[in-house]
User: Which sequence fits this backbone?
């Protein structure tokens, strides 16, 4: 039975008790407690980024929290140990769904990290991040790479050859784009920077990035760098269908954070260990200590409804045993491809707008790890293979982690790991002539290795000799279907296509005790990332607190930085947009 009585006295809401936003971090100082009052039980469906974030905020505010997760806590951000690879007291080789990358403009995730205690860390898990200091933009076809060299560590060091290649690469890139095209891109960035919110949502949301940057008919370098890499390489969406609002917003955030504006840290940060060791395991341990119950291996099948509300959720375990779990409040924190399975006729009758979620699109962005017998030299920490058909990016773990591979992982013969993200699974490769979706796991590995060598060894030097390769591990979410001769993906990624904002749900649904979280929910971040997932989990908790008339403090929310110096130009643009006129600088 659901208790609908408010937690605060009748007529006195949390908004009357609190003036402004109280820092959520202060709540962590309260003693752990299990709320026993009726109306305080919350079931969270999904234990990924959004589910853990919601559980964190709720348990610190005295709610009774249970999280159901079908696979593994941490979702797409988790580490995936490679089965059967441990020996001699070492841990299994660390695999990943994809390496963890924390842009400086992330604010919600770093705030949560500071509130996850770790022995010896003054700022909790947050101290397990460090600034990315060495990156390489690699081109193929004999073109030199641009390298920001690291000064220490086994990955390299400053050498004359490295400096020579970097200077050559900068000169080549500067001359790669015709002056007119470089001016065009600067203009498009200026137009977006000075566009009002009304234009961004009303015009740029509905225009593909390819059209916005006027890529048709331009040079191959312009198309590769400006159109393709900024979409497929960074957010796994195709440039012909990517929302300009999303791509432009992320581009602006990167540039501003690089200038130290609206940034929590450096322009990009990485973890100092496998994700579970550095972040997820301490997080789960903290939440368990506070009182969160985790039920892993439980697949959510359906929502049960009565009286215009959600009354329970039906779950099934690996053995096929089904049961119902009841609560006062429910938060869906499942990825969109799973969340749409909850949209039964009964649920849609209560909130027909959720039907639009079925029109949201997913793409693939999954990880592949190459385990190496030695440390390749001169790669830096992060490498972007600009011209790879599969839009590969990689990080060299020895340059990032404070771990000794040979001592800590595997059988003692692995010294390093190149961890890859494959962002384009639909373009044919250079070895087998097939897209990754139609390659076996061995072909995916062989193709990815060849595409890296095509970039790193195109000037005649040996960087990744085949003898260096020990083994590889492909994200197990990718599974080969021999009948279809194609892969399936159990964990696709929601991507922002033109007009998709209108199909994305808000945190608050029309069902009074049911809330939505996940990176497909409308957020200020507006991109399927750990940050948007965390933001949505926080927003769901704030909506729940309001509905419960709770006296607990609101969860702190952050906004992407908007330069106040541009407010006048944005106000002018809002007036021009309302009058049907283009942006003041949109004249090319």
Assistant:
């Amino acid at each position: 039975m659901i208790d609908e009585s408010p937690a605060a006295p009748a007529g006195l809401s949390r908004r009357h008790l609190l003036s402004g936003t109280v820092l959520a971090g202060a709540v962590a100082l309260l003693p752990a407690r299990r709320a026993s009052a009726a109306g305080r039980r919350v079931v969270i469906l999904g234990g990924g980024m959004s589910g853990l974030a919601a559980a964190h905020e709720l348990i610190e505010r005295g709610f009774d929290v249970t999280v159901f997760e079908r696979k593994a806590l941490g979702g797409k951000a988790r580490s995936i140990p490679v089965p059967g690879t441990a020996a001699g007291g070492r841990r299994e080789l660390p695999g990943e769904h994809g390496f963890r990358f924390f842009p400086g403009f992330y604010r919600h995730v770093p705030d949560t990290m500071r509130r996850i205690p770790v022995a010896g860390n003054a700022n909790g898990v947050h101290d397990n991040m460090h600034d990315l200091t060495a990156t390489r933009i690699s081109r193929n076809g004999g073109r030199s790479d641009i390298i920001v060299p690291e000064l220490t560590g086994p990955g390299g060091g400053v050498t004359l050859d490295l400096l020579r290649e970097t200077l050559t690469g900068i000169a080549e890139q500067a001359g790669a784009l015709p002056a007119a095209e470089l001016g065009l891109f600067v203009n498009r960035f200026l137009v977006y920077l000075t566009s009002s919110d009304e234009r961004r949502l009303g015009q740029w949301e509905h225009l593909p990035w390819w059209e916005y940057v006027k890529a048709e008919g331009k040079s191959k370098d312009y198309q590769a760098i400006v159109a393709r890499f900024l979409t497929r390489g960074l957010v796994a969406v195709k440039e012909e269908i990517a929302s300009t609002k999303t791509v432009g917003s992320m581009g602006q955030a990167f540039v501003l954070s690089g200038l130290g504006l609206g940034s929590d840290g450096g322009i990009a940060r990485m973890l100092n260990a496998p994700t579970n060791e550095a972040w997820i395991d301490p997080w789960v341990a903290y939440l368990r200590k506070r009182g969160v119950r985790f039920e892993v291996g439980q697949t959510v099948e359906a929502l049960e409804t009565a009286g215009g509300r959600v009354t329970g959720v039906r779950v099934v375990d690996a053995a096929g045993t089904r049961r119902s779990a009841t609560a006062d409040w429910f938060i869906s924190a499942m990825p969109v491809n799973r969340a749409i399975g909850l949209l039964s006729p009964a649920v849609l009758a209560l909130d027909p707008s959720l039907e639009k979620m079925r029109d949201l699109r997913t793409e693939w962005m999954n990880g592949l790890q190459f385990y190496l017998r030695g440390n390749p030299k001169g790669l830096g920490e992060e490498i972007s293979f600009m011209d790879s058909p599969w839009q590969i990016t990689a990080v060299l773990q020895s340059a990032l982690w404070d771990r000794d591979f040979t001592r800590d992982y595997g059988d003692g013969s692995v010294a390093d790991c190149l961890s890859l993200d494959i962002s384009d699974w639909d373009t044919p490769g250079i070895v087998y002539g097939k897209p990754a979706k139609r390659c076996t796991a061995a072909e995916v590995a062989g193709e990815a290795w060849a595409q890296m060598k095509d970039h790193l060894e195109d000037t005649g030097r040996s960087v990744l000799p085949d003898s260096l390769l020990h083994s590889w591990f492909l994200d197990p979410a990718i599974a080969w279907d021999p009948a279809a001769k194609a892969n399936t993906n159990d964990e696709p990624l929601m991507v922002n296509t033109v007009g998709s904002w209108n199909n994305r749900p808000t945190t608050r649904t029309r069902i009074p005790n049911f809330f939505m979280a996940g990176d497909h929910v409308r957020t200020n971040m507006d991109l399927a990332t750990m940050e948007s997932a965390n933001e949505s989990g926080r927003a769901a908790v704030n909506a729940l607190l309001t509905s419960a008339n709770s006296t607990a403090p609101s969860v702190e929310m952050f906004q992407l930085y908007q330069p106040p110096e541009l407010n006048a130009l944005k106000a002018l643009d809002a007036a021009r947009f309302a009058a049907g006129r283009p942006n003041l600088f949109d004249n090319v």
In short: Residues 1-37, 150-160 have pLDDT under 50 and may be disordered.
